[in-house]
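go over my protein:
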Amino acid sequence: MLAWLLRIVVAVVLAAAASWWCWSEQLGWPLAGRIGVLLLILLPHAPVLAFEFLLLAAWGDPRPVPRPGVAALFRAWAGEVWWGLWTFGWRQPFRVAAVPDELHSPGPDRRGVLLVHGFVCNRGLWNPWMERLRACRVPFAAVSLEPVLGAIDAYAEPIDVAVRRLEAATGQPPLIVGHSMGGLAARAWLRRLGGPQRCSGIVTIGTPHHGTWLARFAFSRNGRQMQRGSAWLTALNDVADTGVVPFDCFYGNCDNIVFPAATATLHGARNIHLPGWAHIHMLGSRELFDHVLSRLGASANPTTKRE
Protein backbone atom coordinates (compact mmCIF):
# COMPACT_ATOMS: atom_id res chain seq x y z
CA MET A 1 0.00 0.00 0.00
CA LEU A 2 2.66 2.52 1.04
CA ALA A 3 4.80 1.67 -1.99
CA TRP A 4 1.94 2.52 -4.35
CA LEU A 5 1.22 5.81 -2.60
CA LEU A 6 4.88 6.80 -2.84
CA ARG A 7 4.94 5.85 -6.52
CA ILE A 8 2.08 8.26 -7.15
CA VAL A 9 3.91 11.04 -5.31
CA VAL A 10 7.11 10.41 -7.28
CA ALA A 11 5.17 10.33 -10.57
CA VAL A 12 3.51 13.67 -9.80
CA VAL A 13 6.85 15.28 -8.90
CA LEU A 14 8.56 13.95 -12.03
CA ALA A 15 5.65 15.03 -14.23
CA ALA A 16 5.82 18.54 -12.79
CA ALA A 17 9.60 18.66 -13.28
CA ALA A 18 9.30 17.43 -16.89
CA SER A 19 6.57 20.00 -17.64
CA TRP A 20 8.68 22.82 -16.24
CA TRP A 21 11.72 21.64 -18.21
CA CYS A 22 9.79 21.56 -21.52
CA TRP A 23 8.17 24.92 -20.90
CA SER A 24 11.44 26.62 -19.97
CA GLU A 25 13.17 25.15 -23.04
CA GLN A 26 10.44 26.50 -25.28
CA LEU A 27 10.91 29.94 -23.73
CA GLY A 28 14.67 29.72 -24.13
CA TRP A 29 15.37 29.65 -20.39
CA PRO A 30 17.64 26.60 -19.99
CA LEU A 31 19.17 27.77 -16.69
CA ALA A 32 15.75 28.45 -15.20
CA GLY A 33 14.70 25.00 -16.38
CA ARG A 34 17.58 23.27 -14.58
CA ILE A 35 17.06 25.27 -11.39
CA GLY A 36 13.33 24.64 -11.49
CA VAL A 37 13.77 20.88 -11.92
CA LEU A 38 16.17 20.79 -8.96
CA LEU A 39 13.77 22.76 -6.78
CA LEU A 40 10.79 20.64 -7.74
CA ILE A 41 12.68 17.48 -6.80
CA LEU A 42 13.81 18.91 -3.49
CA LEU A 43 10.50 20.54 -2.60
CA PRO A 44 8.83 20.07 -0.23
CA HIS A 45 11.26 17.52 1.21
CA ALA A 46 14.23 19.77 1.99
CA PRO A 47 12.27 22.72 3.47
CA VAL A 48 10.17 20.41 5.65
CA LEU A 49 13.33 18.81 7.00
CA ALA A 50 14.84 22.26 7.55
CA PHE A 51 11.76 23.20 9.61
CA GLU A 52 12.18 20.01 11.66
CA PHE A 53 15.78 20.95 12.40
CA LEU A 54 14.69 24.43 13.47
CA LEU A 55 12.23 22.81 15.91
CA LEU A 56 15.02 20.52 17.09
CA ALA A 57 17.29 23.52 17.72
CA ALA A 58 14.53 25.31 19.65
CA TRP A 59 12.94 22.45 21.60
CA GLY A 60 15.36 19.54 21.38
CA ASP A 61 17.03 19.35 24.77
CA PRO A 62 20.17 17.29 23.94
CA ARG A 63 20.91 16.09 27.47
CA PRO A 64 22.72 13.93 28.43
CA VAL A 65 24.91 14.71 25.39
CA PRO A 66 26.32 18.03 24.08
CA ARG A 67 24.14 20.42 22.09
CA PRO A 68 25.04 20.30 18.37
CA GLY A 69 26.36 23.42 16.68
CA VAL A 70 25.02 25.04 13.53
CA ALA A 71 27.56 23.24 11.33
CA ALA A 72 26.63 19.85 12.79
CA LEU A 73 22.92 20.54 12.28
CA PHE A 74 23.53 21.62 8.67
CA ARG A 75 25.53 18.46 7.91
CA ALA A 76 22.81 16.36 9.51
CA TRP A 77 20.15 18.15 7.43
CA ALA A 78 22.11 17.59 4.21
CA GLY A 79 22.58 13.90 5.02
CA GLU A 80 18.88 13.51 5.83
CA VAL A 81 17.84 15.21 2.58
CA TRP A 82 20.03 12.89 0.51
CA TRP A 83 19.13 9.72 2.42
CA GLY A 84 15.46 10.68 2.46
CA LEU A 85 15.32 11.21 -1.31
CA TRP A 86 16.74 7.75 -1.92
CA THR A 87 14.54 6.17 0.75
CA PHE A 88 11.18 7.73 -0.12
CA GLY A 89 11.85 8.37 -3.80
CA TRP A 90 13.42 5.06 -4.82
CA ARG A 91 13.90 2.28 -2.26
CA GLN A 92 10.46 2.25 -0.65
CA PRO A 93 8.27 2.95 -3.70
CA PHE A 94 10.15 0.91 -6.32
CA ARG A 95 12.58 -1.42 -4.56
CA VAL A 96 10.53 -2.75 -1.66
CA ALA A 97 10.96 -6.35 -2.84
CA ALA A 98 14.37 -5.93 -4.47
CA VAL A 99 16.24 -7.72 -1.66
CA PRO A 100 14.31 -10.80 -0.51
CA ASP A 101 14.66 -12.26 2.96
CA GLU A 102 17.77 -14.44 3.28
CA LEU A 103 17.12 -17.31 5.65
CA HIS A 104 20.08 -19.41 4.50
CA SER A 105 22.24 -20.33 7.47
CA PRO A 106 25.81 -21.30 6.49
CA GLY A 107 26.56 -22.82 9.88
CA PRO A 108 24.96 -24.00 13.12
CA ASP A 109 26.14 -20.97 15.07
CA ARG A 110 24.88 -18.24 12.73
CA ARG A 111 22.12 -16.19 14.38
CA GLY A 112 19.60 -14.28 12.27
CA VAL A 113 18.45 -10.68 12.48
CA LEU A 114 14.95 -9.28 12.08
CA LEU A 115 14.69 -5.73 10.70
CA VAL A 116 11.64 -3.66 11.71
CA HIS A 117 11.05 -0.29 10.06
CA GLY A 118 9.43 2.79 11.57
CA PHE A 119 6.55 5.18 10.97
CA VAL A 120 5.27 5.50 7.36
CA CYS A 121 7.97 3.21 5.99
CA ASN A 122 8.28 -0.31 4.57
CA ARG A 123 11.01 -2.95 4.29
CA GLY A 124 12.66 -1.04 1.43
CA LEU A 125 14.11 1.24 4.10
CA TRP A 126 16.54 -1.58 4.95
CA ASN A 127 17.82 -2.33 1.42
CA PRO A 128 21.40 -1.12 2.08
CA TRP A 129 21.48 -3.14 5.31
CA MET A 130 20.03 -6.25 3.70
CA GLU A 131 22.59 -6.15 0.90
CA ARG A 132 25.41 -5.86 3.42
CA LEU A 133 23.98 -8.59 5.65
CA ARG A 134 23.73 -10.90 2.65
CA ALA A 135 27.34 -10.10 1.71
CA CYS A 136 28.37 -10.96 5.29
CA ARG A 137 26.31 -14.18 5.06
CA VAL A 138 24.02 -13.25 7.93
CA PRO A 139 20.46 -14.65 7.80
CA PHE A 140 17.87 -11.88 7.89
CA ALA A 141 14.22 -11.04 7.42
CA ALA A 142 12.51 -7.66 7.10
CA VAL A 143 8.83 -6.91 7.61
CA SER A 144 6.47 -4.32 6.09
CA LEU A 145 4.05 -3.29 8.82
CA GLU A 146 0.43 -2.73 7.83
CA PRO A 147 -1.81 -0.83 8.22
CA VAL A 148 0.61 2.06 7.90
CA LEU A 149 -1.35 4.32 10.28
CA GLY A 150 -2.74 1.59 12.55
CA ALA A 151 -2.10 0.78 16.20
CA ILE A 152 1.42 -0.28 17.15
CA ASP A 153 0.12 -3.32 19.05
CA ALA A 154 -1.20 -4.79 15.78
CA TYR A 155 2.34 -5.05 14.45
CA ALA A 156 3.22 -7.75 16.98
CA GLU A 157 1.63 -10.44 14.79
CA PRO A 158 3.70 -9.90 11.59
CA ILE A 159 6.82 -9.56 13.74
CA ASP A 160 6.03 -12.89 15.38
CA VAL A 161 5.61 -14.57 11.99
CA ALA A 162 9.05 -13.30 10.92
CA VAL A 163 10.61 -14.39 14.23
CA ARG A 164 9.25 -17.90 13.73
CA ARG A 165 10.67 -18.07 10.21
CA LEU A 166 14.14 -17.10 11.45
CA GLU A 167 13.91 -19.51 14.38
CA ALA A 168 13.00 -22.36 12.03
CA ALA A 169 15.80 -21.52 9.58
CA THR A 170 18.64 -20.96 12.06
CA GLY A 171 17.56 -22.90 15.15
CA GLN A 172 18.24 -19.81 17.27
CA PRO A 173 16.22 -16.84 18.51
CA PRO A 174 17.02 -13.82 16.33
CA LEU A 175 18.32 -10.39 17.21
CA ILE A 176 15.67 -7.74 16.50
CA VAL A 177 16.70 -4.34 15.12
CA GLY A 178 14.02 -1.65 15.13
CA HIS A 179 14.26 1.83 13.65
CA SER A 180 12.12 4.58 15.18
CA MET A 181 8.57 3.25 15.77
CA GLY A 182 9.90 -0.20 14.85
CA GLY A 183 11.60 -0.35 18.24
CA LEU A 184 8.25 0.23 19.94
CA ALA A 185 6.65 -2.45 17.74
CA ALA A 186 9.40 -4.84 18.83
CA ARG A 187 8.68 -4.02 22.48
CA ALA A 188 4.96 -4.58 21.90
CA TRP A 189 5.81 -7.99 20.41
CA LEU A 190 8.12 -8.77 23.34
CA ARG A 191 5.37 -7.91 25.82
CA ARG A 192 2.63 -9.92 24.07
CA LEU A 193 4.29 -12.83 22.26
CA GLY A 194 8.03 -12.83 22.93
CA GLY A 195 10.42 -13.53 25.75
CA PRO A 196 14.04 -14.42 26.42
CA GLN A 197 13.62 -17.77 24.65
CA ARG A 198 12.30 -16.07 21.48
CA CYS A 199 14.75 -13.19 21.10
CA SER A 200 18.47 -12.78 21.83
CA GLY A 201 18.14 -9.02 22.25
CA ILE A 202 16.73 -5.83 20.75
CA VAL A 203 18.63 -2.95 19.17
CA THR A 204 16.63 0.26 18.77
CA ILE A 205 17.65 3.17 16.54
CA GLY A 206 16.10 6.57 17.18
CA THR A 207 13.11 4.97 18.91
CA PRO A 208 10.80 7.29 20.90
CA HIS A 209 10.65 5.08 23.98
CA HIS A 210 9.31 8.04 25.95
CA GLY A 211 7.59 9.77 23.03
CA THR A 212 8.75 12.63 20.88
CA TRP A 213 7.98 16.35 20.87
CA LEU A 214 6.90 16.20 17.20
CA ALA A 215 4.15 13.64 17.90
CA ARG A 216 2.00 16.45 19.34
CA PHE A 217 1.04 17.10 15.71
CA ALA A 218 0.15 13.46 15.01
CA PHE A 219 -3.32 12.48 13.79
CA SER A 220 -2.90 8.72 13.19
CA ARG A 221 -3.40 6.12 15.89
CA ASN A 222 0.25 5.05 16.01
CA GLY A 223 1.35 8.69 15.88
CA ARG A 224 -0.78 9.57 18.91
CA GLN A 225 0.64 6.56 20.74
CA MET A 226 4.09 8.15 20.36
CA GLN A 227 3.08 11.41 22.02
CA ARG A 228 5.02 12.17 25.16
CA GLY A 229 3.08 11.00 28.21
CA SER A 230 0.54 9.04 26.16
CA ALA A 231 -1.42 6.35 28.00
CA TRP A 232 -0.02 3.72 25.63
CA LEU A 233 3.62 4.64 26.32
CA THR A 234 2.95 4.94 30.04
CA ALA A 235 1.59 1.39 30.09
CA LEU A 236 4.46 0.13 27.95
CA ASN A 237 7.07 1.67 30.24
CA ASP A 238 5.44 0.50 33.48
CA VAL A 239 7.40 -2.77 33.18
CA ALA A 240 11.11 -2.70 32.34
CA ASP A 241 11.71 -4.65 29.11
CA THR A 242 15.45 -4.42 29.72
CA GLY A 243 15.04 -7.03 32.45
CA VAL A 244 13.67 -9.53 29.91
CA VAL A 245 16.25 -9.30 27.10
CA PRO A 246 19.32 -7.06 26.62
CA PHE A 247 18.62 -3.73 24.90
CA ASP A 248 20.99 -1.45 22.99
CA CYS A 249 19.42 1.96 22.30
CA PHE A 250 21.07 4.23 19.73
CA TYR A 251 20.10 7.90 19.92
CA GLY A 252 21.42 11.17 18.51
CA ASN A 253 21.64 14.87 19.34
CA CYS A 254 20.83 15.65 15.67
CA ASP A 255 17.77 13.41 15.41
CA ASN A 256 15.20 15.66 13.71
CA ILE A 257 12.23 13.36 14.47
CA VAL A 258 12.80 11.93 17.94
CA PHE A 259 13.72 14.62 20.44
CA PRO A 260 14.56 15.53 23.17
CA ALA A 261 17.46 13.11 22.84
CA ALA A 262 16.86 11.26 26.11
CA THR A 263 13.45 10.08 24.91
CA ALA A 264 15.24 7.51 22.73
CA THR A 265 16.97 5.90 25.71
CA LEU A 266 15.82 3.25 28.19
CA HIS A 267 16.74 2.73 31.81
CA GLY A 268 18.79 -0.44 32.15
CA ALA A 269 19.75 -0.50 28.46
CA ARG A 270 23.12 0.14 26.88
CA ASN A 271 22.39 3.64 25.52
CA ILE A 272 24.77 4.62 22.72
CA HIS A 273 25.03 8.13 21.33
CA LEU A 274 25.48 8.67 17.57
CA PRO A 275 26.59 12.32 17.37
CA GLY A 276 25.73 14.30 14.25
CA TRP A 277 23.35 11.78 12.64
CA ALA A 278 19.77 12.62 11.66
CA HIS A 279 16.81 10.27 11.99
CA ILE A 280 16.77 8.28 8.72
CA HIS A 281 20.42 8.96 7.96
CA MET A 282 21.39 7.08 11.16
CA LEU A 283 21.01 3.89 9.14
CA GLY A 284 24.07 4.94 7.15
CA SER A 285 26.29 4.80 10.24
CA ARG A 286 29.05 2.21 9.89
CA GLU A 287 29.47 2.18 13.67
CA LEU A 288 25.83 1.18 14.07
CA PHE A 289 25.95 -1.59 11.48
CA ASP A 290 29.20 -3.00 12.85
CA HIS A 291 27.69 -3.00 16.34
CA VAL A 292 24.80 -5.13 15.11
CA LEU A 293 27.26 -7.52 13.44
CA SER A 294 29.16 -7.81 16.72
CA ARG A 295 25.91 -8.65 18.54
CA LEU A 296 25.36 -11.40 15.97
CA GLY A 297 28.90 -12.70 16.27
CA ALA A 298 29.36 -12.09 12.55
CA SER A 299 32.35 -10.79 10.62
CA ALA A 300 32.32 -7.31 9.11
CA ASN A 301 34.31 -8.60 6.13
CA PRO A 302 31.86 -9.26 3.27
CA THR A 303 32.20 -12.15 0.92
CA THR A 304 30.45 -12.93 -2.34
CA LYS A 305 31.14 -16.64 -2.23
CA ARG A 306 28.22 -18.81 -1.22
CA GLU A 307 28.30 -22.41 -0.06
User: Anything to note?
Assistant: The domain at 113-296 is CATH 3.40.50.1820 (Rossmann fold). DSSP finds ten helices and six strands in the chain. The two ends are 36 Å apart (CA to CA).
